[in-house]
Amino acid sequence: MQIDPFFQIPQHTLETPSGPAELPILLKEGDYSVFLFMVDKPLVDELLQRTGLRPAMNLGKKTFLALVMGHYSSCSVAPFSFVSLAVSVEREQGFRPTSPWRELFSRADRRHMGFHFLSCPVDNVRLSSVGKLAWGFPHSVSHISYRQEGSSIQAVARCAESNETFLQVRSKSLPFFRIDSMDFTMFSVLDNKIIRTLFPTRCKFTLNVPISFKLRTGDSQHPMSNIIRKLNLENKKPFLCLSTPCFQGRIDTGIVVEDLDS
Fold first, then answer.
1. pTM for this prediction
2. Residue 155, CA distances (Å) to 9, 33, 59, 67, 169 in order
3. For 18, 115, 184, 234, which has the most beta carbons within 10 A of its beta carbon?
4. Among the CATH numbers 3.40.50.2000, 2.40.400.10, 3.90.76.10, 3.40.1280.10, which is that of 5-259?
């Protein structure tokens, strides 16, 4: 039997209301896409209030935001699909890097900046429980359909309770280059403590220029829809899309880097 060192790491069990799960989470195979936007920084500042975090990668009054979606067909917890909104952040009271842009290309364990989920619906109950208990991720259980065929991507997310559609995405892009993936550093807030988590990845990303892009929320009052409308994303086209049909990664156990009550 062939052994893959990337996934041969110590794990421990986390008990959740939906059953036990092993951490770190091993994401062994999946379709994955990232759409990059520039949004108004003051609007993101409002969404980050009381988190101890602030936007990191800024251009004047704009900051970066990513719409990240995918389907993991092989995962150590369970197969699942997800849609999420993430922003680059740094700690308000922590060391402020001279250049978050330069830090982005350094090793994940040496970064002072990272990424923070504003919203992250998933379609698996146990995965949602794990994300909330282990990291404080803003997970919610939803019905999610994700399809990726070459440079065409479609996603539909519906509320698990009302079955109301709160997100529809359709995108066609022009591929032009391939790059190696980079590891991520994540910041989240759990029990009013800032958690820093490393997210090693392994794949080749295709860089795509979006030709057509539609993002719709309808009349939904789902928390993710409200954030999308607050940031005026329905009227924006991403400036870049990264996609891969062979994403692999590990969501490691996080550590507390700051107690917001202190």
1. 0.95
2. 33, 11, 29, 11, 5
3. 115
4. 2.40.400.10
